[in-house]
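Recap from last week: sequence in, structure out.
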Amino acid sequence: MNFRGSHKDDPEINLIPMIDVLLVIIIFLMLTTTYSKFAELQINLPSAEAEKQPERTNEIDIVMASTGQYLVNRRAVAFRDVASFRDELRREGQNMKNPVIVINADSHVTYQSVVKVMDAARQAGYGQIAFAVEQGTK
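Predicted structure tokens:
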């Protein structure tokens, strides 16, 4: 007599424990991964897709060339220090009501030069500053 029988069970592969182990490995890798930190960023200067605004009478245009030349309302001005440039901005805006400072900086002008002009405008009492950008191509 054979009580065991001749029927054998086929082996099964249970996927649930394997999926659990893979999820634990993925979580471990996500937590221990170090992300790259860049010391400097490559940026492009902004461009705008807007129509040209009509010329306003309460604007003080400041043009900053990469050669170190400064123009205030199309007139050459020497930039010696922030205080002298502040006085020049006050002279230009004495007959204007709430003038807007528009900075046209060359793409090669240093960031520090732009900050100095902004500081002179702030010291002169002008709180509205705008930056001119190139019109982008479509």
